[in-house]
Amino acid sequence: MYIVVCYAVYLAVSLMTTVWVARTLRQNGRSFLIDAFHGNGELADSVNHLLVVGFYLINVGYVTLALHTAVQVTSVRSAIELVCDKLGVVLIVLGAMHFLNLYVFNRLRRRGQAELRPPFPPDALISIQPES
Amino acid sequence: MAPVTSFTIVYDATCGLCTRAKDWINQQTPLVGLRFVAAGSPEARRRFPQLPAGELAVVADTGEAWLGNHAWIVCLWALEGYRELAFRLTSPLLSLMVREAYALVSKNRFAVSSLLRLRSQRELEQQLRKVVVQRCQIEPK
C-alpha cells in the first residue's frame, strides 16, 4: 500500500513542479525572445511555445521513466526516503533543463542583436564630411 | 554598439565588374539604406578624405568603414536574403577562401571585365557624351 502512496505523491509533486517551471519559463522568456526577434511578438510567441512544449515532453518523459523502483517499501520512513530520492533527482533534472532553456533564450537574443551589426568589426573609423 | 542603418559604398567606377556588381546590388532589396559613390570622384574625396584610394570601401553613417574583402561581405549583409550567407562567410575556413578569391578577382578585375565584356560606368558615361542628340524642332506647317 505504501508504494502506491509513494507513486501518487511522486507523480503529483513532479508534475506540479514541471508545470510551474514551464509556466515561469513561458512568462519570463517571452521578453527575451521579443528582443531577439526585433520586436516580432508573433514569432517570439511561436518559438516560446515550441520551447515550452519541448520542455514538457522531456521532463514528463523523464518523470514517468524514473517512476519505477525495486525498493520494498515497508515503513513510513522508507516511503519518505524513496519519494525524496526520486523527487531530488527530478528537481535537479528540471533545474538543469531550466538553465539550458535560459541559455537558449540568451543565445537567441545575442544572435538577434548581432544581426543588427555587420559580421566584422570595422576596419577603420573615419570622419564623414556632411553632404553639400 | 549602435545598429548600422545606412551605408555608402565607394566603388571603382572605371571597372566593368564593379559597375555590374553595383547594378546587381541595386536590383536587390536592401535591409539598410544604400548609396553609391565612385571612388576618386570629387564627392568621394570631399566626404571621405581619409579613405585609402583604389580600394572598395563601405562607410556606415556612424563613420565606421569596412575595406576590401570585408567591404563586399558587408554589402551582402545589407541585402535581404544574403544576410545569413554573409555570417556564414565569416567562418574560419570560408573566410580564408573568400579572402583569396577576392584578392584574385580584385587584382584582375579589369581583365575579367574585358573578358566578360562588362562596361564600366565611366565608359558608359563617355560613350553617352559622344551621342549627338538632335534638337527638338517643330516642323512649320
Layout of secondary structure:
The complex is a heterodimer of chains A (132) and B (141).
Chain A: H1 2-36, H2 41-65, H3 76-114, E1 124-125
Helix pairs in contact in A: 1-2, 1-3, 2-3
Chain B: E1 6-11, H1 16-27, E2 33-38, H2 42-47, E3 57-60, E4 64-67, H3 68-77, H4 83-88, H5 92-107, H6 109-115, H7 121-130
Structure overview:
The complex is a heterodimer of chains A (132) and B (141). Chain A is mainly α. Helices cover 75% and strands 2% of the residues of chain A. In chain A, helix 1 packs parallel to helix 3 (76-114) and helix 2 (41-65) packs antiparallel against helix 3 (76-114). Chain B contains 7 helices and 4 strands, in the order E-H-E-H-E-E-H-H-H-H-H. Chain B has a 4-stranded mixed β-sheet with strand order 2-1-3-4, with helices on one face. Chain B is globular, with a radius of gyration of 18 Å. The N and C termini of chain B lie far apart (70 Å). The model of chain B has no long low-confidence stretch (mean pLDDT 86). Chains A and B meet through strand 1 of A and strand 4, helix 3 and helix 4 of B. Strand 1 of chain A pairs antiparallel with strand 4 (64-67) of chain B.
Principal-axis shape of chain A? elongated
Largest sheet of chain A: none
- Total number of helical segments of chain B? 7
Task: Tell me the span between the first and last alpha carbons of chain B.
Answer: 70 Å
Shape of chain B: globular
Can you give the mean pLDDT of chain A? 87
What letter string, H or E per element, gives the SSE order of chain A? HHHE
Name the pair of protein chains with the most residues at their interface, and give those residue counts.
A-B, 17 and 28 residues
Distance between the terminal alpha carbons of chain A, to the nearest Å?
90 Å
How would you spell out the order of helices and strands of chain B? Answer: EHEHEEHHHHH
User: Quick one: how many beta strands of chain A?
Assistant: 1
Mean pLDDT of chain B, as a whole number? 86
- Give the tally of β-strands of chain B: 4
The structural class of chain B is alpha+beta
Name the beta content range of chain B: 5-15%
Beta-strand content bin of chain A? under 5%
Name the poorly predicted regions of chain A.
none
Largest sheet of chain B: 4 strands, mixed
Strand ordering within the main sheet of chain B: 2-1-3-4
Q: Radius of gyration of chain B, rounded?
A: 18 Å
